[in-house]
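Annex B. Sample input.
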Amino acid sequence: MTAPAPSRLLVVDDEVSLMVALRKTLRDEGYDVTGATSGAEALAVLRAGGCDVLMTDLMMPQMDGIALLRQALAVDPNLVGIIMTGHGSVPTAVEAMKTGAIDYVLKPFKLSTALPALERAVMVRRLRLKNTELEEQVRRRTAELEAANQELDAFCHSVSHDLRTPLRALTGLAEILRDRHTAGLSPEIRRLVSLIHAGAVEMDQLTGDLLAFSRLGRQPIARQTVDLERLGREVLENFSGEIARRRVEIHLQSLPAVAGDPALLRLVLVNLLSNALKYTRPRDLAMIEVGVTRLADEAGPVFFVRDNGVGFDPDCADKLFEVFQRLHHAHEFEGTGVGLAIVRRIIERHGGRIWAEAAPDAGATFYFTLPPDTTPTVEPDAAPGAAP
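Annex B, continued. Sample output.
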């Protein structure tokens, strides 16, 4: 294994004998040392090849150590500086540390104090370089991610227009055959046309669901106070037609306000209530409850949508929230297997979590958490003469 290269030191002191002696001593300690006797000479060395640590005398003619360090950091922002000073200039050395030096050492030197300062300086240099490297990686990855998002947006636009347009044409043509020309078609042909129509509708719905799912990761959240109970009533109103055709008993509890995006939270309730209505179809009386509870391991309120439908195997509960995961056959219950994945992404983007509990033929309950609304309420002014 190749040994790491020695750390590069630049020692600057206008007293040549001191600079030479210090350079020799530190070389003996394993450092790669370059010497300079003025600030101008030191800056030339930095611009030519650089170094890891700059050790500079504080009091020098023409350019003192503070001025040198300031200009050196302009050449290499990751450079680490150590100020060398006599006892009488310690306050000035401390002031120099505000310029960017990480330490100071007193002259005449003692290796027992100088070497630990150098070791700290080398460590800081390595950390600064690593941090710069990581920042560059973040910038590069961010640029790559932005480019990938642009490509994904372009792909979604292409899918939305180039793929769905012929799908809708296929659906429309199948509807014309099915609805206007049935007299001239055999039962088998009519069955095949119906299958073509159903397949095209399903593919169009799946394409739309996938587009919605892909956009959720980039769609900004317009967070505001959301009256979840009112939102639930509005969503249930949208299902009033289906509810009127069946025996459905729905109980909507009083729900607290939450902080979130009303459009996205509406989509959560639409998907969860749609599932509850779908999977309770085999029941003579469908019972659905939307409510809120408290659980020992949750700090805030826990919302739930509960039904008495067909349920599912609890061992498969985690799969429910993955794209294309379905626990029932398509001929039993329609769907694309994307809805609950959309719900999970919305809840998680709001800072909450979602999970489900169920048993076969014993209904299901979907629990989810959301940040509570923390908007301060404005108390009405007290009436004149009222007691404080």
